[in-house]
Amino acid sequence: MRTILVNTDTLRDRQLAVMPNVMAIGCFDGLHLGHRQVIRIARQIAKRRRIGLSVMSFSPHPRTVLSDGKVKVPRLMPLEEKEDELRKLGVDFFYLVEFTKEFAALAPEQFAVDYVAGLGAVHAVAGFDFKYGSRGAGHMDRLASDSNGLLEATKVAEVDYRGEKISSTAIRTRLLGGEVEQLPPFLGRNYEIRGRFEGRSFLPEPGYTVPAAGCYEVRLKNAWQAVNSEIRVTETREGQSVSCKVDRGPVPLGKAAVEWLRRIEEPENELDGEFAGSGSYRLNYLFA
C-alpha cells in the first residue's frame, strides 16, 4: 500500500500519477465496524471491476479546523496503526488529504472532480452521512452529478448496534467514561494502545484516547507473550498517570500493547495510590 499526502500544493502532481481505483471516503478514525463496512463494499466493487482500491481520509480532524482549534477531537488510532490496518484490508492507495479552511470551502463540484475523480476514482463509496464541500452542501446522493458523470457513487447505510449508530464519537464517549467493555460491538475487537515498556515505565505512542480515571483489567501483549494485568488510570496536572500490576509472568519489555478488557472496582487496600503485593510492578507514564 502507498500512502499519498495530498494538499493544494501537491494535488496537480498527484493527479498526474493516478491509476483507476474505487475510493472509500471518510475520516476512518479507529476503523470501527461502520468504517470497515464502507471499505468492504469498496473492495468488492474494485475486485469486480479489476482495478485498485483506495481510501481517502483527512487530517487534521475537520471539527478542529472549522472551530479554529477550539474543539480538540481525541484520536482513537495514530496514523501508523491506521496504515497497518488499511494494508490488512487490502487497500492499494491511501490518500491523506490535508484538511484546511480553504479545502473546506471548496465547491462540492470541485471536490468531486479534483479530489475524487482527479485522483483516479471511477467509483466512490462512503457512509450515508458523509458530507463534502462548502458548508457540507455535498452528499452521496449528488456526488455522481457533482462529478459531471465521471463517477459512480455508492451510499452505505448506517451500521448500528442495538439501535445506536456505530461511530467514532460513540467510541470516544465510552472511553472517556471508562466503559471499555462496551467497545467490542463497535470496534469488532477490544481497544488497544501501543507503546513501549522500558524497565518500570510504559511509553505510549501518541494518537490514542486513554480511558477515564479508574482501575481496569487489561492484557499486556507483545510479539511473544500476553500477560493479564490490572491498570489504574489517575489524573495528574501533567496528564494521565498509569500504574500496572502484573499477577503472572514478567512485564513484556520493548514494544507492546495494552488491550483494555473491562473496568473493575478499585481494591480498598490500594486506595493509597500504590498497587500492593509482591508480584506487582509500578509502571508510571503520562498520556498527553
Name of the CATH class of the largest domain: Alpha Beta
General form: elongated
| Integer average pLDDT | 88
- Strand line-up across the major sheet: 12-11-16-13-14-15-17
The Cα radius of gyration reads: 21 Å
CATH topology grouping of the largest domain: Rossmann fold
- Helicity, as a percent range: 10-25%
Give the termini distance in whole angstroms: 30 Å
Number of helical stretches of at least 4 residues: 9
Q: What CATH architecture of the largest domain do you see?
A: 3-Layer(aba) Sandwich
CATH superfamily of the largest domain: HUPs
What string, H for helix and E for strand, traces the elements in order? EHEHEHHEHHEEEHEEEHHEEEEEEE
Structural class: alpha/beta
Biggest sheet character: 7 strands, antiparallel
Strand element count: 17
Number of domains: 2
Strand content: 25-35%
Low-confidence stretches: 271-288
Secondary structure blueprint with pairings:
Elements: E1 2-6, H1 11-15, E2 21-25, H2 33-49, E3 52-59, H3 62-66, H4 79-88, E4 93-98, H5 101-104, H6 108-116, E5 121-127, E6 131-132, E7 138-139, H7 143-146, E8 152-156, E9 160-161, E10 164-165, H8 168-176, H9 184-187, E11 191-198, E12 201-204, E13 214-221, E14 226-235, E15 240-246, E16 254-264, E17 286-287
Parallel strand pairs: 1-4, 2-3, 2-5, 3-4, 5-8
Antiparallel strand pairs: 6-7, 9-10, 11-12, 11-16, 13-14, 13-16, 14-15, 15-17
